[in-house]
Amino acid sequence: NNRRRKLCLEEPMFILGNGEVYRNQTEVKMSQIVLPCHANYCGELSAGQLLKWMDSTACLSAERHAGCSCITASVDDIHFETTIGVGQVVNITAKVNRAFTSSMEVGVLVSCEDLFSDRHWKVCHAFATFVARRTEAGKVQLKQVIPRTQAEQMEYSLAAERRRMRLIHAEIINDLLSSCSSQTGDECLDYQEAVPAERTRVESVELVLPPHANHQVSTFGGQIMAWMENVATISASRLCNAHPTLRSIDMFHFRGPSHIGDRLVLKAIVNNAFKKSMEVGVCAEAYQGGEPLRHINTAFMTFEVLDNDRKPCTLPRIRPEPVDGKRRFQEAIARKKIRLDRKYIISCKQSEVPLSVPWDPSNQMYLSYNNVSALKMLAARTNWVLTSEKKKVSLYTLEENQMLCFKVETHVAVAAEQVFLLLSDLRRRKAWDHHYQYVKLITDSHEDDTIYQVVTPSVTKGGKVQDFILLASRRRPCDSGDPYMIALRSVTLPAYPPTEDYNRGEVLCAGFSIWEEENSFTKISYYNQATPGVLPYISTDIAGLSSSFYCTFASCSAFLEENKDSLASLPTSTL
Fold it and tell me: What is the pLDDT along the chain (575 residues), one digit of tens a residue?
């Protein structure tokens, strides 16, 4: 198999803390030099060809872990940061981040290498979900991934949160599209210079031949993506009469398989043109003989047209066709907002996320994801330094990238689920934490997400008290070895602006990680990425001038043990 021969299967080595040499057995690497046959009209690697290489590498990584054939189920958002020219080398690395019952998440990193200047740069990264195919023995039960390095532990933990978002993605997107479409006015006016959307419509048929199939005689998922990218590019070109560049692909799912002998019908049309970008919708359907069409996949791709300085050009307006065209036009506006929310909240580095992000129903899923993911990333750090310890309550600090974080750790003789339920409702926290003077529940935005207003004492004598608007996101364990999580971060709400009565404080990342240990014994770790609004409350403890942290968490332990049998009295929203 040509694809297998091109793979570099030598895994990178890591030296663990105990001196053990470690190689990730699921990691697969592919390196390809970009030849003219791989390039488009601009002398750049076609995005379709890159998608084929990415899917091939990810599939082989999944199969190394599963020990059997695997198929692509879905691919998360992909944002292409740069293009790749002829003569440059594409390096693709894929490895399994986490396995669930019969599916697994594979992380894919694409970088580019210039052989003459020895420069390396990132092109994109993606997360794909693969499903192990049934064997003659029945459904495959995948073995668990055991993370060994800090980076693997972080991705393993975040994979559970990404999976949760995938499972509810379609439902939330449909709700948002319905809401946004009903609120969108008649923005598709009959502009004089507008290009009729019908002019951008493309339909193409491909016959699936053996070279297009993978080693399971099903149509190669990367090949379908490449065909879809091809018709989308033609559609985008018809709008702008220029060569467009693919910038991003929204999350999509393969809804059914395709096989050798299928005729694949690919349809594309420009849904909307914004000032500097356009959205193209693509649909793939399959049939054999006189069979009805089977829906294989739908994707939404964002294109730009770049000038000689690689800057996006202004695009012509689009005039949608009546009824379905106007619906697609308005839904594209809604998806653009969703896309910006995802990029603004999820894709950027944690250090680039602002302290307070405006909350609204359209971005609540992404804020919740960011909230829990930030806490999981903080918890996965291994370079914590023990600062002080008193009666089995330990205070750790971590100083990194000019940011100070702290962790308080203790154990209680209470079941982990009871600890989770008791700590989930912030209104009960004032019973053990003297910093929480007043707590008001603002809204239950979701069964796992609640927004509170918290009032804390003044940090200076005679000064104003502080208030925080906090999003609390709760997660039960995904697997038996996972902790319960309660993540906290600041958000802004129009109904609760800063007032003269309070100094508005902000929390970037805080929360509890609750681990179940044997015999109803539970380890509680509290984390906080200290911001100017939080640091004054803990600075004397970190400096060793006080041990108030011990008193607070001793009080927490007493509260948990006193209330472990009072779950029936908890508010319904918490239970």
Answer: 444 334 443 345 666 666 677 788 999 999 999 999 999 888 999 999 999 999 999 999 999 999 998 999 999 999 999 999 999 999 999 999 999 989 999 999 999 999 999 899 999 999 999 999 877 777 888 999 999 888 899 999 999 989 988 887 777 677 766 665 555 445 555 566 789 999 999 999 999 999 998 777 889 999 999 999 999 999 999 999 999 999 999 988 999 889 999 999 999 999 999 999 999 999 999 999 888 999 999 999 999 999 989 899 999 999 998 888 888 998 888 888 777 777 666 555 545 555 677 888 777 888 898 899 999 999 998 889 998 888 889 999 998 777 788 999 999 999 999 999 999 999 999 999 988 999 999 988 677 899 999 999 887 777 788 899 999 999 999 888 899 999 999 999 999 999 988 988 888 899 999 999 887 899 999 999 877 666 666 666 555 555 788 889 999 999 999 998 876 444 444 44
Q: Which residues of 171-183 are buried (b: 16+ CB within 10 A; e: fewer)?
A: ebbeebbeebeee
Give Cα 509 distance to the centre of its chain. 17
Closest CA to 478 of 240, 144, 15: 144
Helices within 192-220 (DSSP H only): none
Residue with tokens 């379609």: 170
Residue 401 belongs to what domain range?
352-563
CA pair distance 327, 348, nearest whole angstrom: 31
574 lies in a domain? no
Burial classification of residue 307, based on how many CB atoms lie within 10 Å of its CB (0-12 exposed, 13-18 middle, 19 or more buried): exposed
CATH number at residue 242: 3.10.129.10
Tell me the CATH number at 476.
3.30.530.20
Q: How many residues does the chain have?
A: 575
Nearest one of 250, 308, 246, 310 to 278, comparing CA atoms: 246
CA distance 490 to 505: 8
329 and 468 part of one domain? no
Regarding whether 266 and 124 lie in a shared domain, the answer is no
Q: What is the DSSP letter of 382?
A: -
Contacts of 142 (CB under 8 A, 6+ apart): 65, 66, 99, 100, 101, 102, 103, 104, 132
Same domain, 274 and 396: no
| DSSP classification of residue 259 | B
Last residue of a domain, one of 350, 369, 391: 350
Q: In what order do the strands lie in the sheet with 263-273?
A: 78-79, 245-249, 294-304, 278-287, 263-273, 202-207
The C-alpha atoms of residue 34 and residue 28 are separated, in whole angstroms, by: 19
Question: For residues 226 and 56, what is the distance between their CA atoms, to the nearest angstrom?
Answer: 12
